[in-house]
Every structure is written in C-alpha cells, then in structure tokens.
Design a protein that fits this description.
This protein has one helix at 98-103, and strands spanning 2-7, 12-21, 24-33, 39-47, 55-60, 64-69, 87-90, 112-120, 127-138, 141-145, 150-155, 161-164, 168-174. The chain has 176 residues and is mostly beta strands. The N and C termini lie close together (5 Å).
Length: 176
C-alpha cells in the first residue's frame, strides 16, 4: 500500500510504500520538512517478527546517512548506547508508531506498555534513547506519552496513523 501524510501543525509531508503482514512491516519512504531548514529524508524500515525493528536506514542529502541494525533482542550493531531499545522512532513520522501499537494490538484491546525507542531526529540524524508509553484508550485510539509530549493517536484497523495531533494526518491511501 502507499500512504501519504501531511503535517498537522508544522509543514511536513511524508509518503511511503508499505508491505504489511500479520507479524511485521517493510517500508520505504520520504519525508519533507522545512524546520530548521528545508530537508528531504529517505528511509528504509524492516520490522519483522513481532514488529521488532531489524533495520532502519535514513539518509538526508547534505547531512549524511545512518544505518541502524538490530539483533531482535535489544542490541544495535555499533550503537551500544541504544541497547535495550527494540524499535526506532523517526521525528515527525507517523509510520514508526506502528510497531509499538501493533506488537500488543493496542489499537484493538486494552493494555499499556512502556518502550525504549532509538529516536532519530531530523534533519540532523542524531540518535538517542527515548522512553515512551503507549496506552489503549478505545478501539482506534492509542495514547502516546514521551519525554515532553503526549497525544491521543487515531489509527485505522491496521494500526496505521490516520491523525496524530500536532504531528500529522493521513491525506491519502492506496491499497493494492
């Protein structure tokens, strides 16, 4: 499937191609933004086997590239500072909320889970650990709380974001 999101408050735009299965996702996408300066970020995400990130590559022309590889048990090749994180989270991207939501079907049933994420900021590609909590509010709504931000994320039946207040809203989807 192909999905497009636009920024809810800040000017951003994101389009990605997604291959979604019962236990994971493979995606490629591009995000555009203008703060702190215009940028284009391209990414590849592989999160198979329980929606655990195995690889996340992000490139920003003029800035560089990061290629995060994960063993599925909390260890990232060449990034010991990220140990313990099972997932990645890309700044301003609604796509990377899918993994923690789907792992415990929080879009469908009650539950609350704490996660440690490898958070990638844009456009500088800095990576650091980010503690996050996802809580089922009701079917189709999952509450996100992070270090200094929280919101009720609206998702579809697949757990993909339709609206993430202050971050993005889905503007198009093409099912194949």
């Amino acid at each position: 499937m192909r999905i497009a999101w636009e920024g809810d408050e800040d000017w951003t735009s994101e389009v990605c191609e997604i291959d979604l299965s019962a236990d994971g996702i493979v995606a490629t996408g591009t995000q555009l933004g203008i703060e702190p300066h215009p940028y284009r970020a391209s990414y590849e995400l592989e999160a198979r086997g329980g929606f655990i990130t195995r690889r996340f590559r992000v490139a920003v022309p003029g800035v560089g590239e990061i290629d995060l590889r994960h063993d599925g048990e909390g260890h990232w090749d060449g990034h010991r500072e990220l140990d313990g994180a099972l997932d990645c989270d890309l700044a301003y991207s609604p796509l990377t909320n899918l993994m923690p939501i789907r792992r415990f079907a929080l879009h469908e049933r009650p539950g609350e889970h704490d996660y440690l994420m490898a958070w990638v900021s844009l456009p500088d590609l800095h990576v650091h650990l980010s503690p996050q909590r996802y809580t089922h509010r009701r079917p189709g709504v999952v509450h996100f709380s992070g270090e200094d931000f929280e919101a009720d994320i609206e998702v579809d039946a697949d757990g993909l974001v339709t609206r993430y207040p202050q971050i993005s809203r889905r503007v198009a989807i093409l099912q194949r």
